[in-house]
Amino acid sequence: MSSHAVAVTLDAIVIVVYFLTIVGIGLWAGRKNSKLTDFTVGGRSIPWWAVLASIIAAETSAATFLGTPAEGFKTRGYLYGQLVIGTVLARFIIAWLFIEPYYRYRVQSIYEFLQLRFGPRTRDMAAAIFLLTRVLGIGVRLYLGGVIFVVVWRFLFPNAAVTLETYFWGIVFVTAVTTLYTAVGGIKAVVWTDLIQACLMIGSVIFALVAIFLAIPGGWETIQTQLAASGGVPVFTWGWDSSRPFGEALKHMLEQPYTLFAALIASTFFTMATHGTDQDMVQRMLTAKDHIRSRLSLVLSGLADIPIVVLFLSVGVLLYVFYAVHPEKVLPAAQNEVFAHYIVNEMPTMIRGLVIAGVLATMMGSTSAALNALATSFVKDFYEPYFSKGSDDRRLIFAARIATAVFGILMILVATLAAQAVLTDATLTIIPIALGVMGYTYGSLLAVFLLGVVTKGRGHDEWNVLSMVVGMFAVLVLCKVQIPLPPELFGLRMTLEEIKLYWNFGLMLPEWWPAIAWPWYVFVGCLVTMAVGVLRRTPDAVLTQLKAHAPQRD
Asked: Where in 227-375 does DSSP place strands (E)?
C-alpha cells in the first residue's frame, strides 16, 4: 500500500470513529424519551455547563469554521471580530429580559409565550417566521458540508470534475446522519453530542492554527512583513470618514458591515434576536434546571465567543500569509473553500482527519439543534393546537420525529441551492449570506417579543401580524437588499448581475440613500415593527394605562 493510501486510510479511520461516537451518544441520550418534555427540553435537568457547551456548538456552525477564516483571509484582519462586542452586550440584556418569563410560563416553544401575551395569531406568525428563516439559514450553512466533501474529492480524484452533484451528496450524507440521532434522541442527544462537538471544534482550530504557523518559513518575522506589505492588520474601525460631508460619511458608515457602530448597536440587536427570540438557541437554555443556571450558561457563552472568534480569524490571516509566501500553491476560486483546501492538501496525516471531523462536528452541532427546535415549534405551535388536540405524549413524540426528517429534507434542498449560487459566483462568502437571511425577518421577531416583555397592555393580535409584515418589507426596501438567487432557479437565461438587479428591493429609493449593510438588518426591522406595533392597542389596555397615568382629583 502506498504512503498516500496509508495516509488516507488513517484519516478515514479518525472520521469514522467520530461519526460512530456521535451517533452512539445521540442514540444513548434519547433512550428514555417517554414524554414530550423529555424530547423538547430534556426534562429541564441538563447541567448548566453542558448547556454552555451546547450554545457554543450551536452558534459555531460550519459557517463559522470555514466562513470566519474566509473573512480573515479576505480582509487580512479582525474587523469581523468587532461584532463580538454586541454579542456579549446582548446576552446580558437577554438574560435580564427574556429568560425568566420563559421559565415562569413553563413554555416548551417560546412562541407559546406570545400566545399568552397577545393571542394565537401573533404566535403563529412568529413561529412561521422562525420555521422559514431557520430552514433557509441552516440550509445555507449546510452548503459548507458539501464544501469539505468537494475538497476531499478533489484531493482523492484531482482530474475528476466537480459539479453540483458532488456538493449534493456531501450535504445529504451529513444531514442524514444528523437527522437520525436527532429524531431518536431529541434535545438530550443535541446537548450531549454538542458537548463533544464543541470540544472537538476548539481543539481542531487550535491544531490548525499551530500547523499553519509552523508551515510559514520565518515565523513571526515573515508574518509581520507580509501583513505590513498588505496594509497592516486592522482590528477596529469606526467606519466614519470625517473628511466627507455628514450625509456622505453616514452613508459610508452604514454601508460597512464591520464597524464599531455596527458592533455596539447593530450586533447587539442581531444577537438579541438570534439568542433571545429564536427557538433554536433558546430551547437549549430551557433545558437547565432554572432560569438562574440558564442565565449563567448564556452569559458565559458570550464571553467564550471572544477567544473563539479571534482563533478563527487568526486562521484566516495566517492562511493569507501562508499562500503569499507559497505562490506556487494553487488556491480554490471560492474564498469559502480556502481553509478546507488547506486542511485537505497541507495538514499532516491524522491531524487532517481530526480537523475534518471538527468541521463536520460544527456543522452537525448547529444542524441537530435546529432540527430539534424546528420539530418542537412545529408540534407545539401548529400540530398540537390545530391538528391533534389532546394527543398523548407518544403520538406527539412520533410527530416530532417525522417533522425532524421533513425539515432535514428541506434543509438539503436549500443547501443545494446555496451551492448553486456559489458555483455561479465564486466571490460570494457564506457569512453575509447565512446571517443576512436571518436579518430579513428576525427584526420583526425581536420587536414583538420586546413588546411582550416591556409593555403592560394586551396589544392587538392581528395588528402584531401586520406590524411584522411591514417590518420585514421595510428591511428589504430600506436596506436596498439584493438577493443573489441563481438564474437557473427560475429557468431564466440571465446573467448574475441581471438577476441581482431584478431582485433589488431598493430601486424605488434615491441614489443618496445607503445600501445598509447586513448587520443592521435586525435593527431596522425591529424599529419599524415596534413603531407600527405600538400604534394600536386593545381598548381595555389603553383605558387601563390612561387611568394609571391620569392626575388624581380630590
From this structure: none
CA distance to 85, 158, 179, 484, per residue, from 427 (Å): 27, 22, 31, 12
Query: Phi and psi for 254 in degrees, rounded to 5?
Result: -70, -20
63 pLDDT above the threshold of 90: no
Closest CA to 194 of 17, 404, 25: 25
Q: What is the pLDDT of residues 356-403, one digit of tens each?
A: 777 777 777 778 888 888 999 999 999 988 888 777 888 888 899 999
CA of 489: how far to CAs of 267, 334, 415, 493, in Å?
A: 32, 21, 13, 10
- What is the grid cell recorded at 18? 467520530
Report the DSSP beta bridge partners of residue 482.
504
Quote the pLDDT of residue 274. Answer: 87
Question: Model-level pTM?
Answer: 0.78
For 124, half-sphere exposure in the C-beta direction (CA atoms, 13 angstrom radius) is 12
Is there a contact between 451 and 497 (Cβ–Cβ < 8 Å)? no
Sign, CA dihedral 497-502-506-511, equals positive
Count of beta carbons in the 10 Å neighbourhood of residue 291: 18
CA distance 355 to 358: 5
Please tell me which of 14-18, 106-110, 188-192, 355-359 the model is most confident about, judged by mean pLDDT.
106-110
CA atoms within 13 Å, Cβ hemisphere of 185: 24
3-state secondary structure 479-519: CCCECCCCHHHHCCCCCHHHHHHHCECCCCCCCCCCCCCHH
Q: Output the DSSP codes for 350-407.
A: THHHHHHHHHHHHHHHHHHHHHHHHHHHHIIIIIIIII-TT--HHHHHHHHHHHHHHH
Dist. CA 452–CA 445, nearest whole Å: 11
Residue appearing with cell numbers 466571490: 427
Torsion angle (degrees, nearest 10) of CA 189, 194, 200, 206: 180
Residue pointed to by grid coordinates 450535504: 171
For residue range 239-267, list pLDDT tens digits in order.
Answer: 777 788 888 888 888 888 878 888 889 88
Query: In terms of Cα–Cα distance, which of 201, 168, 166 is closest to 68?
Result: 201
Phi (first) and psi of residue 510, to 5 degrees: -70, 165
